[in-house]
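Quick sanity check, DUF2637 domain-containing protein:
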Amino acid sequence: MSLMVSLDTSWLFFRDHLHIDNVWIRTGMFTVLEVALIACGIGMAAGVRRHDRPGSAQLSAWALCGLSGYMAVVEAGPIDGAARVLLGPALGMVMFHHALGIEKRARRERTGMWARIGREIRERVLSRLGLSDDERDAARRTRDRAARRVAALSLGRRVWFRESRLARALSAANVAHDDTMRSVMLAELATRRHAGELAALDQPSPWTEPRGEHHRRIAR
């Protein structure tokens, strides 16, 4: 709505001072300032969303407001021209800055609880797919999963095509040539095989140990 005031000023300025008398040519040209303001507004909104600040588009927008003020003063005089500027692009810019402030506050709220939930879901999905950022490359992740699959296939009670699947898993884990993967596979196998003994494992009570000794023993 504020740009409609600026549009009327531009129409009169292009006719009276730039002497563009052809209506069709003037129709295609007189909106150049308003279109540029809209483009600057889009750039400012994008800057706020990406970097939390309007960026250089803000300076360009205010420069265009100054140009619109010059056109209004030349066309309607200092008093009426000031009204055209204040009710036109200047008012639009002020209101747009308020809107950007709302956008910034909403963005900060989105970076709160919902952002943490989004990050947590993303990390869980990546971890489930074996793609979490744990300093392993893709080949190492593939071999790790294959080594653990060897243990699962070996101890499974009813496994279809056990021998062929076990052979593929052993080959994928490269346990014949990789000592690290062989250790991972054997540790996984031993853990799964003796999991039933975990509940009966003899351990000293943490309630009777000196304070801090239980944590130090676990750390060791």
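Posting the structure with no commentary besides this: The chain has two domains: 2-110, 135-195.
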